[in-house]
Design brief:
The complex is a heterodimer. By secondary structure, chain A is an alpha/beta fold. Chain A has 16 helices and eleven strands. Classes of the chains: A alpha/beta, B alpha+beta.
Chain lengths: ~375, ~325
C-alpha cells in the first residue's frame, strides 16, 4: 500500500530504535500530547521498544476526554428543551456527565443526532426550519475552523435556527498550564500532528524558550513516532531544546493560513473548562460579538444541577499525565468500553480506551 | 422492457403465490423432495445430525462478489461445515418487500441454485411472505440447514489444545469492505470482491487429511479478532498470533486505512480458521492450499497456556499487543 507501508518499514524502525538506545544516557520523560499518538503508541507497542531511560506519558489531547462534566451537563440540558435538535460527533454520546449521558437523554426522547461534520448539522438545520439545531462544538484547533465555516455559511444563507455550544479548546495554552503546574518534570513533548497542520509549529516556541522542554511535531505512523522520539532524545541529550517538525508532509511552521483566518474571523480567545485541570484562562474559543446570536449558551437558558464527578474515576489525573489507566481501581474491572465510567474509556482516542484495547499489562 | 414487481398478493396464498413458486423457484431449485410441495419434507437419516439456522438481511442485496442469495446458502453451509458436518439439505424462506422486481428475485434465485449446486446441497422446503413497502428492505432470507457428522469427528470451539497451530484459510476483510464500498459508493483502484463461498468441500478435504483438527470456525461478523477471542474463552486457552502472517488484500488495507477500521474486525464470508495439532498442521495447510478457497492459507499463530482467554498479537515491529473482541458496531447489516 503505497505511501503508508513506507512509514511502517520494519528495518527503518529497528534503526531508529537503536539510534534512540545509543543517544539516551539519562532518564528522560516525554509526553505524547495527542490521543491519536497514544493510540498509535499502544497499537504498535512502542513503549516496549524504548530503553528504560525513556519514559512516555500520555497527555490531555483527546477533545472528548477533556470536556468537563459541567459542559456535558449543559449539552444534556439543552437536549431536553422543546423543539431542539442536538447534533454531535458520535464519541460524545456515551460520555457520562454528572447524572446521565446524551445517549440516555436520547433514550428519554430527546432529539439527538450523530453527525460527521458541521456541514451535516447545518443540513439538519435547513431541513428542520421550525426547530432549533444546536451543534455540540467540542474539539481543538483541528475542528474549530470547520465550526467557524458553518457559522459563516449560516450567516450568508440566513439560516436562523443554527446554534453552536462553543466548547473549542486550544493546545498550546493547555501545554503551558501543565508545565506551570510543574507536576510532571517533562523533558520533551511529542506535539500533535493534525492540530499543528492548522496552527503550525511556531506557537510551541515558548516551550523550549521558557521551560527548556524539547518539542517535536509528529505524524501518527510507527516510524513518525519513533523518529520524533529520536529527535527529542537528541535535543535533550545535547541540552539544546527547540521545536522541530517530524511531520513535514503535513505540517509547516506557519500552519494553514486559510483555516487560521477563518477561526480568527469568527472566534476570540476565552477561558475554557478542562476536565482534571479546571478553568484555564485564554485556553478556549468563544464567538465574537458579531456572531453571538449563534451562541447556544446565550440563546437558551437552562437550569443545571450541581456538578458531580464519578466516584473513583481518575480521568482528570490521567489527562494531566500524573497517573496512567493502570493506576485506576476501576480500570478493566468496573470501567470498560461497554460500561464506561469516565470519558477516557469512551473516546476512541482516550488513554483508557487505548490501554484497554491494546495494552499487554492486563494481569 | 416491462419488469414485473412483487405484489402483496404474491404472498397471500392465492393463485399468484402458486405462480411465483412454480415459475420462479421450482424451475431452478427443483428436486424430488421439494417438488412434492408437501407441508414438510420427510427424510430418512442414520447417524449424528447437525442443525443450524441463520437470517440474512444484507444491504445492498447485490454486492461485488455475491448477493444475498449466495450469502444465505454459503453462510448456513459454512456453519454446518464448521462442526465437521457434511451439509445435505437447506430450507429457504423469503420475506420480500412489496415492489421488488421479479428480475432481481430471479437473479437471487439463480445465485442460490449455483451456490447450492457447488456445495452439493439440496433445498427441500421453503416459504415466501410479502410485506408492505418499508416493512422490510427489499429481501430478507432465512435458511436452516442439516448435515451429517461423520463417525469419529469431534470438532468444537471448546476443543483447542495448547500447542495447536492456528491456520487461516486466506486474506481477511474482503466481504465487509465489498459490501460497505458498494453501499457507500466508494471506489478503490483495486476493487474488493466479497469472499462469500461454500467451504464444505474444503472442510471435507481437511478432515480426510487429518484426524487432529480440534476446532474450526468461520470468522464472519466481528472478524478474525472476535472469533479468536471466542475460541480462546470457549477453550480456556491463550492465543498468540503473528501480525506479519495474516494476509489482507491491498484494497481492504487501503479501505480500512481510509475509514479507520482494523481488518482484524472486518467480516468474512468465505474464510475459516482451524486449530490443528502441530504434527498435522503442515499437512492440513498443504491440502488447503490446493483448494480454490484456500490458496492463500497460512499458519497465523498458536494456542498457548499463557494469558488464558486472551488473544495476543506479535506486531511487525516485534512488540506485543492485546487483540480484543469487537466493541460496539463496526458496519451495519453486512450479512
Amino acid at each position: 500500500m503505497k505511501f503508508i507501508d513506507e512509514y511502517r518499514d520494519v528495518e527503518l524502525a529497528k534503526k531508529l530504535v537503536s539510534k534512540i538506545k545509543q543517544l539516551s544516557t539519562r532518564p528522560t520523560r516525554l509526553m505524547e500530547f495527542c490521543g491519536g499518538h497514544t493510540v498509535s503508541i499502544m497499537m504498535n507497542g512502542i513503549r516496549q521498544l524504548l530503553p528504560p531511560t525513556v519514559e512516555m506519558l500520555s497527555g490531555p489531547g483527546c477533545p472528548v476526554c477533556v470536556t468537563a462534566n459541567a459542559d456535558i451537563d449543559k449539552a444534556i440540558a439543552l437536549a431536553h428543551l422543546p423543539d431542539v435538535i442536538i447534533t454531535t460527533f458520535g464519541d460524545m454520546m456515551k460520555v457520562p456527565g454528572s447524572y446521565s449521558s446524551l445517549q440516555q437523554a436520547r433514550a428519554g426522547k430527546a432529539d439527538i443526532r450523530i453527525v460527521y461534520s458541521t456541514q451535516d448539522a447545518l443540513q439538519i438545520a435547513r431541513d428542520n426550519p421550525t426547530q432549533s439545531v444546536i451543534f455540540i462544538g467540542i474539539g481543538f484547533e483541528t475542528t474549530a475552523p470547520t465550526i467557524a465555516a458553518s457559522i459563516l455559511q449560516s450567516e450568508n444563507e440566513g439560516i436562523r435556527n443554527f446554534y453552536v455550544l462553543c466548547l473549542s479548546k486550544l493546545c498550546p495554552p493547555i501545554m503551558k498550564a501543565l508545565l506551570d503546574l510543574g507536576e510532571l518534570k517533562l523533558d520533551g513533548i511529542v506535539c500533535p500532528g493534525h492540530v499543528s497542520a492548522i496552527i503550525g509549529s511556531r506557537p510551541y516556541e515558548f516551550i523550549p524558550r521558557n521551560y527548556g522542554v524539547a518539542c517535536v511535531v509528529s505524524g501518527f505512523e510507527a516510524l513518525d513516532i519513533l523518529q520524533s522520539i529520536a529527535l527529542l532524545v537528541e535535543q535533550i541529550e545535547s541540552g539544546k531544546p527547540t521545536v522541530e517538525i517530524a511531520y513535514r508532509r503535513v505540517v509547516s511552521p506557519e500552519g494553514n493560513k486559510t483555516a487560521l483566518d477563518l477561526m480568527e474571523s469568527v472566534f476570540e480567545i476565552g477561558s475554557a473548562d478542562w476536565r482534571g485541570i479546571g478553568v484555564v484562562p485564554a485556553s478556549g474559543l468563544k464567538l465574537r460579538r458579531k456572531f453571538e446570536r449563534f451562541d447556544a449558551e446565550q440563546a437558551f437558558s437552562v437550569t443545571l444541577e450541581p456538578v458531580r464527578e464519578a466516584k473513583g474515576c481518575i480521568c482528570g489525573d490521567i489527562l494531566r499525565g500524573v497517573k496512567t489507566p493502570n493506576d485506576c481501581k476501576l480500570f478493566r474491572k468496573v470501567c470498560t468500553p461497554e460500561h464506561p465510567v469516565g470519558p477516557c474509556m469512551v473516546s476512541s482516542e482516550g488513554s483508557c480506551s487505548a490501554y484497554y484495547q491494546y495494552g499487554t499489562d492486563y494481569e | 422492457m416491462n419488469d414485473e414487481t412483487i405484489l402483496l398478493a404474491h404472498g397471500s396464498g392465492s393463485r399468484l403465490s402458486h405462480e411465483l413458486i412454480e415459475k420462479n423457484f421450482l424451475p431452478s431449485l427443483a428436486n424430488p423432495l421439494l417438488a412434492k410441495l408437501d407441508d414438510s419434507a420427510v427424510l430418512d437419516f442414520n447417524g449424528r445430525l447437525a442443525f443450524t439456522t441463520d437470517s440474512y438481511v444484507v444491504s445492498p442485496i447485490f454486492f461485488p462478489g455475491g448477493d444475498i442469495g449466495r450469502l444465505a446458502v454459503c453462510g448456513t453451509i459454512n456453519d454446518l461445515a464448521m462442526s465437521g458436518a457434511t451439509p445435505l439439505y437447506l430450507s429457504l424462506s423469503f420475506i420480500i418487500e412489496e415492489g421488488l422486481t421479479l428480475s432481481k428475485l430471479a437473479k437471487v434465485v439463480r445465485s442460490i441454485k449455483a451456490a447450492a449446486e457447488e456445495a452439493g446441497v439440496k433445498i427441500i422446503t421453503g416459504d415466501t411472505k410479502v410485506v408492505n413497502r418499508e416493512s422490510a428492505d427489499k429481501l430478507f432470507i432465512n435458511t436452516s440447514g442439516i448435515g451429517i457428522v461423520p463417525e469419529g469427528i469431534d470438532i468444537s470451539g471448546a476443543n483447542a489444545k495448547v500447542g495447536d497451530k492456528i491456520i487461516l484459510s486466506g486474506a481477511i476483510g474482503d466481504h465487509g469492505i465489498a459490501v460497505m464500498s458498494q453501499r457507500e459508493g466508494l471506489k478503490f483502484s483495486v476493487p474488493v470482491r466479497s469472499d462469500c463461498a461454500p467451504l464444505s468441500k474444503l472442510v471435507s478435504q481437511m478432515l480426510e487429511a487429518s484426524s487432529q483438527i480440534h476446532c474450526m470456525r468461520d470468522p464472519t461478523r466481528g472478524g478474525l479478532a472476535t472469533t479468536l477471542n471466542e475460541l480462546a474463552s470457549q477453550s480456556k486457552v491463550g492465543i498468540r498470533i503473528e501480525e506479519g502472517n495474516i494476509p489482507a488484500h491491498d484494497g481492504v488495507r487501503a479501505a480500512c486505512e481510509l475509514l479507520g477500521f482494523d481488518p482484524l474486525y472486518v467480516a468474512n464470508e468465505g474464510k475459516l480458521i482451524a486449530m490443528v495439532a502441530p504434527s498435522d498442521a503442515e499437512k492440513v495447510l498443504a491440502i488447503m492450499k490446493r483448494n480454490r478457497y484456500g490458496t492463500e492459507a497460512s499458519i497465523i499463530g498458536e494456542v498457548t497456556d499463557e494469558h488464558k482467554g486472551k488473544v495476543i498479537m506479535r506486531t511487525r515491529l516485534g512488540t506485543s499487543r492485546i487483540v480484543d473482541m469487537l466493541i460496539g458496531e463496526l458496519l451495519p447489516r453486512i450479512c
